[in-house]
Write a structure and sequence with these properties.
This protein is of the alpha+beta class and 299 residues long. The protein has 7 helices and 7 strands; from the N terminus they run ββαααββαβαβαβα.
């Protein structure tokens, strides 16, 4: 079984003829994730700006670029995206439907704007990027797949790490293997641009020690220890949140040893809401940029 002893060492090159210590090669790990994030943000900003300009051909081109850049199969509406009235339709024409007689009513109209559709596409692509980065790290680290789970759900992306991969039994101090794993993770979390929510979880078996009167305290101390190490590795503390759930948010059946092992965990969570907030801020900025551009006199 693979262990965290197999975590990869930083690539080095031998000293030159003049001697000296080995030199680390390449940029920090988080730069790769940061570059992917910036590419998504730039593509999204261009799309939102083109929509604010209300030009059909520009919107079609930008929306197609967004789908290609994000590798998403979701569809951005390109058929009359801004709700413009076709020139060959009389705006005074009263629409009728023979099937809507005798008090029949129409079905609710979908009022979702194209901007909301684009935000959804962006959020899905962003979460997919986070999921892939985390899965790559888990695979490269050689960890047992049962020790670490990467789960993408509707509300965001979860990285679930069993306590045995990080801590000794009933302890909150990270083991050397646990520290190595969290430091590796920091290379991803620092470049994401969204908060890292660190939460501690326990199984239902009670603990009562001088240090940890209950599972609340144990879970909180473990989550805080992971957060401190992320900060020590260089992550901005303002991008980290710490939570403790004790035994009250299980993900598996407590009646089995395997289920209890899955429930004893630390989670790193990246929220879809936070990702959508990024998209909405860009959306507002694109509108503001368009308004400034329109206000500049030509010639």
């Amino acid at each position: 079984m693979a262990t965290t002893d197999e975590l990869p060492e930083p690539a080095t090159r031998p000293p030159d003829d003049g001697g000296g210590a080995p030199v680390e090669e390449g940029a920090p790990t988080w730069i790769v994730t940061f570059a992917d994030m910036m590419s998504l943000l730039l593509t999204f900003f261009i799309l939102m700006y083109s929509m604010s300009e209300v030009k059909q051909d520009r919107f079609l081109l930008a929306s197609e670029s967004l789908r290609e850049a994000m590798g998403s199969t979701a569809s951005v509406p390109t058929d009359n995206p801004m709700g413009l009235m076709p020139e060959d339709v009389d705006p005074d024409l009263e629409l009728s439907n023979p099937g809507l007689s005798n008090g029949a009513t129409t079905s609710p109209v979908d009022t979702e704007s194209p901007g909301e559709d684009v935000v959804d596409v962006f959020a899905e692509a962003y979460m997919k990027m986070i999921e892939e980065r985390l899965r790559d790290l888990v695979e490269e680290s050689g960890l047992d797949a049962s020790s670490v789970e990467v789960v993408r759900e509707e509300d965001g992306v979860y990285l679930r790490i069993r306590d045995a991969a990080l801590f000794a039994t009933a302890q909150a101090n990270l083991t050397p293997k646990g520290e190595a794993l969290i430091i590796s993770l920091s290379g991803i979390t620092m470049g994401l641009g969204v908060p890292t929510i660190v939460s501690g979880h326990a199984d239902s078996r009670p603990i009562r020690t001088a240090s940890f009167p209950s599972n609340w305290e144990l879970s909180a101390a473990r989550a805080a220890g992971v957060a401190r190490l992320l900060v020590g590795a260089g992550q901005d503390p303002e991008t980290i949140r710490v939570q403790s759930f004790g035994e009250f948010r299980p993900v598996a059946d407590e009646s089995t040893a395997e289920g209890r092992a899955r429930n004893r965990r630390v989670e790193l969570f990246f929220s879809r809401d936070a990702i959508e907030d990024i998209a909405l801020r860009l959306q507002a900025e694109s509108v503001a940029t368009s308004e400034v551009t329109d206000s500049v006199p030509v010639g």
